[in-house]
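job 3f2a | input accepted
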Amino acid sequence: VLFGVLAQASGLGQLFIDLATILAGRYAGGPAKVSVVSSGFFGMISGSPIANTVTTGAFTIPMMKKKGFSPSFAAAVEASSSCGGQVTPPIMGASAFVMSEMLGIPYNEIILIAIVPAFFHYLAALSMVHLEAKRLGLEGMAAEDIPRLKDVMRRSWHLMIPLTVMVTLLLL
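job 3f2a | predicted structure (172 res):
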């Protein structure tokens, strides 16, 4: 949770939300898809569903409610997307280290194996969001609400350095 609060205060959470908005915001049910994608991004470096929810949910749940999703659906999307961080490489949850130790499989192999279930977890979440958005007739976000990649990277490029170093050291 402390990592999530630190990420939010440093602007890392906003970077993930901006990148997710660029990728998924224009499609049907945009804010909910942004929630899924940003939770996937944050899950890649956290592995903690609680930290993930604290960091991304504070922004995405109000966006989903404002766009027309019910409060319970918005909370469910954020909770289920945030739980995917436990199986999303490269960091994953503590269970990945336990599996590596107990099975005698190198951590790098555990990471490779985990790509498939993580992909299907987020694909299923995106599919459910898409179906609910179509059922409710919800459109994507307006073009003026979607940030430009160049502006986001100009403002937040420095936040990529510690992430790259952390993941590289973990894989080594």
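job 3f2a | The chain has a mean pLDDT of 88.
job 3f2a | closed
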